[in-house]
Write a structure and sequence with these properties.
Elements (H helix, E strand, L loop, with lengths): L2 H7 E4 L3 H6 L4 E6 L5 H12 L3 E9 L3 E4 L2 E4 L3 E8 L12
Helix pairs in contact: 1-3
Length: 97
């Protein structure tokens, strides 16, 4: 796969409070494409960052109803991937590629 395809799978790092907490357990959280599978996510992380991936866990956060300037709106569903790295591997998503 090409690097462009990897960027289509991995949308962005999820820099949240929980994402910071799981980094202590050698995990990283990414927002990924809704159609991405676990093997594709593993290949994309290994290809983009040059690290060895031990496991990938995914979840889909359902969109919520919100009001914006008095109008009802629905936020989009978001798929997240919790990527566990092999022992000795480090990944700092706060720095750019």
């Amino acid at each position: 796969m090409s690097k462009e395809h990897f960027y289509d799978i991995i949308r962005s790092p999820a820099v949240t409070e929980k994402g910071t907490l799981v980094s202590e357990h050698n995990q990283v959280v990414f927002n990924v494409a809704r159609t991405a599978t676990k093997p594709e996510i593993k290949k994309a992380v290994e290809g983009l960052f040059g690290v060895k991936v031990k496991a990938v866990n995914t979840l889909v956060r359902k969109g919520k109803q919100r009001r914006f300037r008095g109008q009802a709106a629905t936020l989009s569903d978001v798929k997240k991937a919790y990527v566990t790295l092999e022992e000795g591997q480090r990944l700092d998503v706060t720095t750019g590629l």
